[in-house]
């Protein structure tokens, strides 16, 4: 039995470089999604004001 050794994973501390790379990748992905959301909202707002300016739609204030 002395010749049978089981390879165990050695536990090491956190890799700073790996954590920085993962953090930057997650940050860029989240930032990209947020930016795409804002571009979509900006496009909808611009389309609304274009329709309003051309007179295809109108806004009527609610009377109380």
TrEMBL record:
This is Cytochrome c oxidase subunit 5C. InterPro entries: COX5C (IPR008432). One of its GO terms (cellular component) is mitochondrial inner membrane. The keyword Protease does not apply. This protein is one of the nuclear-coded polypeptide chains of cytochrome c oxidase, the terminal oxidase in mitochondrial electron transport. Belongs to the cytochrome c oxidase subunit 5C family. It is found in: Mitochondrion inner membrane. Its main location: mitochondrion. The chain crosses the membrane at residues 20-36. Keywords: Membrane, Mitochondrion, Mitochondrion inner membrane, Transmembrane, Transmembrane helix. The keyword Transmembrane applies. It comes from the Eukaryota.
């Amino acid at each position: 039995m002395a010749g049978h050794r089981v390879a165990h994973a050695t536990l090491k501390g956190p890799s700073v470089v790996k954590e920085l790379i993962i953090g930057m990748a997650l940050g860029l992905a989240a930032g990209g999604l947020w930016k795409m959301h804002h571009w979509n909202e900006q496009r909808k707002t611009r389309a609304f004001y274009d329709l309003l300016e051309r007179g295809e739609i109108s806004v009527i204030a609610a009377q109380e």
